[in-house]
Design goal:
This protein has 253 residues and is of the alpha/beta class. It has one domain: Rossmann fold. Helices cover 34% and strands 15% of the residues. The longest helix is centred in the last third of the chain and has 27 residues.
Length: 253
C-alpha cells in the first residue's frame, strides 16, 4: 500500500547506486517524495520501471554528469514556481527538506590525487554550496555516506576500537608522495582512503567556515553488499548503520 505523502522532499545523490537505490525505497516507503541524481538518466530506468514504479508521481531524476562543476546540484536542491493558476495564485514546489549524499568517485584503477581525491573533495563541496545557496530554509539535514577507511589508522594497538572521533591522517600524506615504485596492488586503496578522509574533512571545514546552520552528519559504512534492487528489493544489505539510523536521519514530518 502506498503511504500518504507527507509533503516533504528528500534528495539522494547517486540514486542508481547500491546504497542510493535502497535509500530511495526507504524514503518513498516513509511518505517522502524523492529527487535523485545520476550521471545519466537512462541508468535509473530499471528503478523507475521496477521498484519505484508505484511511486512514480513522487520521483524526479536529475542528470548530473560531473559532480565537480560549480552549481552541479543547484537544480536538484531548489524549489521552482510552476505556471500561474490565476493572476493571484501560483503553484510553488519547495526545495528539498533533507539530503543523502552517496555519490563519490570509486575506481581502484586510478592512481593520482587529481583523478581520485580532488573529485571527492569537490563533490562534497559542490553539494554543500548548492544546498546553502539554493535549497531554502526548509532544509533540515544532510547526511554524507563515507567509509570506515576515513577513520582507520595502520597498525592500531590490539583490541583498539575505532569510533567517529578517529581520523585517517596518514593516507593523504602517502597519496601525495606516492611514486611509481609503490606496490600497484595497494595504490588504489591508498587513494580511496585518502579521498574519503579528505572529503570528510572538507565537509566539516565548509560547515564551520560558512556557518551553515543545519545538521550535517557522516555515515561510516564498512561494507555494502551489491544489491540488484530492481529484482530483489532491500535484500542482503549489510552496513554498520542500521535502518533505525537511516530512519532517524530523515527530517521529521
Amino acid at each position: 500500500m502506498i503511504p500518504v505523502s507527507n509533503g516533504e522532499i528528500i534528495l539522494i545523490t547517486g540514486v542508481n547506486g547500491y546504497i542510493g537505490s535502497v535509500l530511495g525505497m526507504l524514503v518513498l516507503s516513509k511518505g517522502y517524495s524523492l529527487r535523485g541524481t545520476s550521471r545519466a538518466k537512462s541508468s535509473t530506468q530499471p528503478l523507475l520501471e521496477g521498484p519505484y514504479a508505484p511511486y512514480i508521481d513522487r520521483v524526479e531524476i536529475y542528470e548530473v554528469p560531473d559532480i565537480t562543476v560549480n552549481g552541479a546540484f543547484d537544480d536538484a536542491v531548489k524549489g521552482e514556481a510552476l505556471s500561474a493558476i490565476s493572476k493571484v495564485h501560483s503553484t510553488y514546489i519547495p526545495g528539498v527538506h533533507g539530503i543523502f549524499h552517496t555519490v563519490s568517485p570509486v575506481d581502484f584503477s586510478l592512481r593520482t590525487w587529481g583523478t581520485v581525491v580532488e573529485p571527492a573533495i569537490r563533490g562534497n563541496a559542490t553539494l554543500f554550496e548548492s544546498a546553502a545557496a539554493h535549497a531554502g530554509p526548509q532544509l533540515q539535514s544532510i547526511v554524507v555516506t563515507s567509509s570506515g577507511q576515513a577513520m582507520l589508522s595502520p597498525d592500531p594497538p590490539g583490541g583498539y576500537v575505532f569510533t567517529e572521533a578517529d581520523q585517517n591522517t596518514w593516507a593523504a600524506d602517502l597519496a601525495k608522495t606516492m611514486t611509481s615504485e609503490f606496490p600497484e596492488e595497494k595504490a588504489g586503496l591508498v587513494m580511496y582512503s585518502a579521498s574519503k578522509a579528505a572529503a570528510d574533512q572538507a565537509m566539516w571545514r565548509f560547515r564551520e567556515e560558512k556557518k551553515v546552520k543545519l545538521f550535517a552528519g557522516i555515515s561510516y559504512a564498512w561494507r555494502a553488499h551489491r544489491v540488484h534492487i530492481h529484482t530483489a528489493i532491500l535484500r542482503d544489505v549489510e552496513h554498520t548503520s542500521s535502518d533505525r539510523y537511516w530512519s532517524a536521519s530523515l527530517p521529521s514530518s
